[in-house]
Design goal:
about 350 residues, alpha+beta, six-stranded mixed β-sheet, five-stranded antiparallel β-sheet, disordered C terminus, Rossmann fold, elongated, OB fold (Dihydrolipoamide Acetyltransferase, E2P)
């Protein structure tokens, strides 16, 4: 049995002249929690709809366990979808909403009853069977939508920004809840979001997208610590991105100073992008730093201070538990492992 449950091969999707997806190639392994991440309009929901069968590709293949399903209708695919608006039936109670798919299949009533109770227990809503949909909170409605999708035992669950309508505290709680459900059931989740924190919190693998193209695929740690281009670095977390020159392997110059780094394989004197995360810059005395700068602003963020320090013509964002006041001259230390070097982005030729 193949490890890849879903695979997209050279998939393009055009809506008239608009190229929504261009040469999408990726696979999803069995039992993975995979997140499609990117800004609005990048093509992530279109990708999900192609997998679900609600759209068909202009070209390319969508494989399910090595079989091309690009032309199969949704009801013939072993996937279910949870939409952002949940699409619950307001005239039915909780029990009937969850049981709907099984009733359509004319399943035995006692078996339906058993499975509905199992689903309510799974989503921590045991005893809610007779509640009306309108009496539920947004988080409870979302759990009912998930239970209704899971009761049909899909091999893959597609989730289209299902946390978008929830407030911040509830959304954070549901992130943990979704991961718990996925791990307990051991099925594949493909999740769409524009929220990088959601992606980092829940995912086994993140697929970053921009303008219908893949930008990077990797674990949350890979995506955050080793971004492949400036877009990924800027979109995933916060970063300072400056122009640099790679003099030789392990030696880069930026902000008027040469730094040792851990990157290699660039051309001599190659122009590069240098990415530095705000938590990776250490603030010291002005006589101790590799760089010297002036504090421009300070914001208290609860667990740390966010400072902007100007060094030469560059502004560095810094997260630190120690605060230096506005106007103070400070030194900055950046260790080799905390300097990330990327090739300059080249605009790809139009298809």
């Amino acid at each position: 049995m193949t490890l890849n449950i879903i695979e997209l091969k050279n998939v393009c999707k055009y809506f008239g002249e608009h190229k929504a997806l261009i040469d999408m190639n990726f696979y999803v392994r069995r039992n993975e929690f995979v997140t499609l991440l990117g800004p609005s309009g990048c093509g992530k929901t279109t990708t999900l709809r192609l997998i679900g069968g609600f759209e068909h590709p202009t070209s390319g293949e969508i494989l399910f366990e090595d079989t091309n399903i690009a032309d199969l209708p949704p009801y013939k695919r072993k996937v279910n979808t949870v939409f952002q608006k949940y699409a619950l039936f307001p005239h039915m109670d909780v029990y009937d909403n969850i049981a709907f798919g099984l009733k359509v299949k004319k399943m035995n009533k006692s078996l339906i009853d058993k499975k509905v109770k199992e689903m309510l227990s799974l989503v921590n809503l045991k005893g809610f069977e007779k509640r009306s949909i309108d009496s539920l909170s947004g988080g409870q409605q979302q759990r009912i939508a998930i239970a209704r999708a899971l009761i049909n035992e899909p091999d893959v669950l597609l989730l289209d920004e299902p946390l978008g309508a929830l407030d911040l505290k509830l959304r954070k709680g549901m992130q943990i809840e979704l991961k718990r459900i996925q791990q307990r059931l051991g099925i594949t989740f493909i999740f769409v979001t524009h929220d990088q924190e959601e992606a980092l919190t829940m995912s086994d693998k993140i697929i970053v997208m921009k303008d219908g193209r893949l930008q990077q695929i990797g674990t949350p740690e890979d995506i955050y610590n080793e971004p492949e281009n400036a877009f990924v670095a800027d979109f995933i977390g916060e970063s300072t991105i400056v122009d640099g020159i790679m003099h030789e392997d392990f030696l880069v110059e930026f902000a008027g100073c040469k730094f040792r780094c851990v990157d290699k394989g660039f051309g001599k004197k190659e122009n590069v992008d240098v990415v530095i995360r705000p938590e990776d810059i250490k603030v010291v005395g002005s006589d101790e730093g590799m760089l010297v700068g002036m504090v421009q602003s300070v914001i208290f963020k609860g667990v740390h201070y966010e400072m902007i320090v100007k060094s030469g013509n560059h502004l560095f964002k810094i997260h630190s538990t120690k605060m230096a006041p506005v106007g103070k001259q400070v030194g900055l230390i950046i260790e080799p492992n905390d300097i990330h070097i990327m090739k300059k982005e080249r605009v790809k030729d139009e298809e």
